[in-house]
Amino acid sequence: ITSAVAFDILPLKLHPFSQSTPTGLDCVGWKRRISAPVIADGALDKTALTDDVGSEEDLYEDFRSSNHRYGHTGGGGEQLAINELISDGSVVYAEALWDHVTMDDQELGFKAGDVIEVMDATNKEWWWGRILDSEGWFPASFVRLRVNQDEPMDDYPLKVEGGKEDDSSSGPRRFGMGQTTKDQMRTNVINEIISTERDYIKHLKDICEGYIKQCRKRADMFTEEQLKTIFGNIEDIYRCQKKFVKALEKKFNKDHPHLSEVGSCFLEYQTEFQIYSEYCNNHPNACMELSRLTKVNKYVYFFEACRLLQKMIDISLDGFLLTPVQKICKYPLQLAELLKYTNPQHRDFKDVEAALNAMKNVARLINERKRRLENIDKIAQWQSSIEDWEGEDVLVRSSELIYSGELTKISQPQAKSQQRMFFLFDHQLVCCKKDLLRRDILYYKSRINMDEMEILDVEDGKDKDFNISVKNAFKLHCRAPEEVHLFCAKKPEQKQRWLKAFENERRQVQLDQETGFSITEVQKKQAMLNASKQHHTGKPKAITRPYYDFLMRQKHPTLPSTLPQQQVFMLAEPKRKPSNFWQNISRLTPFRK
């Protein structure tokens, strides 16, 4: 059983950008006419295709003139199978891919890794399920059907954390589960990993050959920049995944799948999987660009013609483009399940355990990079609100606000004290002055290069360098050239927070160097351009609806009307406490004049 969910597909003009990628649906409507054979490497036999339906252009024109509305009202085979199982009295379990946070008492909330009993899958988008004593609607695209449906629920952990079960029960871990049964469970997981990888490669191949190749032929419709925005680095991902699948298949034991040793493959490719970071960060831009293009009929017909020529399943382009985003967050879940059915004595146990941690780290890294990229827009907006800015933009060297607050700065030689607002970014400390009348307006005064500074804690009392008495003080000292800055906080706890912030700044810089994190020049320029436009209009930027939201609405009165925003990389990890840095900035220096 695949992990995706089959949905009804609305008519193309009304079909919104979905956050799930259904698989297993057959092409409808035009399927009879497109019967091109597939040659050995998976490419279409163009000669046979032309004989049956004419040229690409003929199909495009035929499709355009017919105003064909692709889609179907019937359910997918997987959903029918689920409903049949439920009707027969069988219990069907699904595992949560993402957190579902809800305030609606008719919706079922859960965290990634939770196991849900599916009680009704009649609706394509919302299923009714149960966790312990709680029941409610939940989005079908947020879950994957459990591989081993025959496993007793009593022995299945409600949370999969690090691949280890909750061993709170005093009874045996598996009631009546012998070695043979556990081997079969491991076989099921191994087979799912291999089969889903092969399906995924087919999806990537279809996107690269069915869409990108055709789009490049139409320079009159697409610029290279547009194609980069829509498809990101999916061709790099395709090349990486082809090598990964070959490595998996070499480790796959066809005769005895449970003996397969696949953990080492994930360890080998953990670094290469970081290319997903660029793709995931670009995905919102791809959705927005597709949304803009598909408002024009010729692009709607063109994308549909591409899909039909490639004999792809009945899913819109945005659905296919979501598959890499979903794929990278499924690896930890699959590995956690694999580890659960791998005996500690198995030769693959240590590698699977290490692979699970490695893939969690990859997902965390992608999440962190996404957060950092989202921050650069805020930093650009902040800079645009500062009066009398001098020198290079903050984004030239920095991408993260570490801490901010008021300090008293004491300058030599007269030991003059000045009350200033300071903003600590990675690599630099920016100093601003508040307007005397309008305290929400800041003026740029100076900045300090943190890469050359040493942090010195100063005891309360008389400072020999400045020859004055100080309290709650610290210094920034540079040896070449000799440069000393003295700062005083109002309270001891404020001083300690600043000292901790300086430690975090150095740690962040080192981590960025180790992971190779950087912001491209294009991203920096775009962020500053957006901030400049917003600044000059004098009006707040329109808030766009989160790109993950569904527009599909159901008429059923008890069904939720919208789907929540998807948290793609929130695995079975505790939620990170939200930072209040930007709230402090909004309070102290609103982005307005």
TrEMBL record:
GO terms for cellular component: cytoplasm. It is found in: Cytoplasm. GO terms for molecular function: guanyl-nucleotide exchange factor activity. Residues 185-369 form the DH domain. InterPro entries: DBL_dom_sf, DH_dom, GDS_CDC24_CS, PH-like_dom_sf, PH_domain, SH3-like_dom_sf, SH3_domain, SOS1_NGEF_PH. Signal peptide: none annotated. Residues 89-148 form the SH3 domain. Its main location: cytoplasm. Residues 156-167 have a biased composition (Basic and acidic residues). Keywords: Cytoplasm, Guanine-nucleotide releasing factor, SH3 domain. Residues 155-179 are annotated as: Disordered. It comes from the Eukaryota. PANTHER family: RHO GUANINE NUCLEOTIDE EXCHANGE FACTOR 4. This is ARHG4 factor. It comes from Urocolius indicus. The gene is Arhgef4.
